[in-house]
């Protein structure tokens, strides 16, 4: 948190991506996740009433004003306003002495349809401001494993499982110098994916296998060995969720690995490469022109 001379408190939260452990983390497996250089800030200024504004790179997209009982007085987005109202109700129950007569201004420095964590960063920012545990706020709003909220305040890649960060980790440059993140162009609804996954059969074999893949990926300096773990992860998840692997569906002629990130079917995916210019040209020729290297994207 930073505080300016005119007493504006500003909080920061990073976006997220999950490389290993998607879906299975909901059943207790480890996941390997990245906090991003993209994220959201929240500025809070003392005011006579409760007002909230959210901004993207394209300007203000959401506003709401509420009275002292969190009745919505005015808004341009009823669904977003209702989620925020529920969060404020929980915060007041936990922190009854907190003054809600504040002007809140949230600013995201990424495209909201990229799926990088507009929801999880909101939860983290409100948790930082109020002192209420983020898990309580997550449970009444968006749900999920909580890895994304953990990424919001992480300094680097993390191993997350069963509601907590197990450890911070790092990948060698021999690996990170060969990773490209590409926007697929389909915003995925994580809440809907979570509901869909709950009906799938997962046993201890799947959990143990995923944990082993993560361990192997973190122990190697060889990109070919790392790619093998990516490919095996895709093979493990595909039959569980009943979805064709992304490489098989869209990029069968790509010579290296393609890895879905988080909920399959939307948002970003990761590709390995040997020559960056060649990899970028391949995806751009197919119409995928939002691309980031590891160094540009990951904290």
UniProtKB/TrEMBL annotation:
Keyword Metal-binding attached: no
One GO MF term, please?
A: kinase activity
List the keywords (alphabetical). Kinase, Transferase
Superkingdom to which the source organism belongs:
Bacteria
Q: What is this protein called?
A: GHMP kinase
């Amino acid at each position: 948190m930073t505080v300016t001379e005119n007493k504006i408190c500003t909080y920061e939260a990073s976006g997220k991506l999950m490389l290993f452990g998607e879906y299975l983390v909901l059943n207790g497996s480890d996941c390997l996740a990245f906090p991003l250089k993209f994220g959201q800030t929240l500025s809070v200024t003392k005011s006579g009433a409760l007002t909230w504004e959210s901004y993207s790179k394209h300007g203000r997209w959401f506003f709401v004003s509420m009275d002292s009982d969190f009745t919505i007085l005015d808004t341009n987005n009823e669904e977003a306003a209702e989620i925020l109202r529920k969060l404020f109700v929980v915060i007041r129950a936990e922190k009854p002495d907190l003054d809600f007569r504040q002007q809140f201004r949230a600013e995201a420095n990424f495209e909201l349809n990229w799926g990088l964590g507009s929801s999880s960063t909101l939860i983290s920012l409100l948790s930082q401001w109020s002192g209420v545990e983020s898990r309580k706020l997550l449970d009444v709003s968006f749900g999920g494993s909580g890895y994304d909220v953990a990424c919001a305040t992480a300094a680097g890649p993390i191993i997350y499982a069963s509601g907590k960060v197990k450890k911070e980790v790092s990948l060698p440059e021999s690996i990170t110098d060969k990773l490209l993140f590409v926007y697929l162009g389909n915003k995925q609804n994580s809440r809907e994916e979570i509901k869909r996954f709950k009906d799938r059969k997962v046993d201890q074999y799947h959990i143990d296998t995923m944990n082993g893949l993560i361990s192997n990926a973190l122990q190697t300096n060889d990109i070919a060995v790392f790619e093998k773990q990516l490919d095996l992860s895709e093979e493990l998840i595909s039959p569980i969720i009943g979805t064709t692997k992304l490489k098989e569906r869209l990029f069968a002629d790509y010579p290296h690995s393609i890895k879905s990130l988080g909920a399959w079917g939307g948002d970003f995916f990761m590709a390995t490469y040997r020559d960056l210019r060649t990899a970028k040209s391949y995806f751009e020729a197919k119409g995928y022109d939002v691309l980031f290297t590891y160094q540009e994207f990951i904290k």
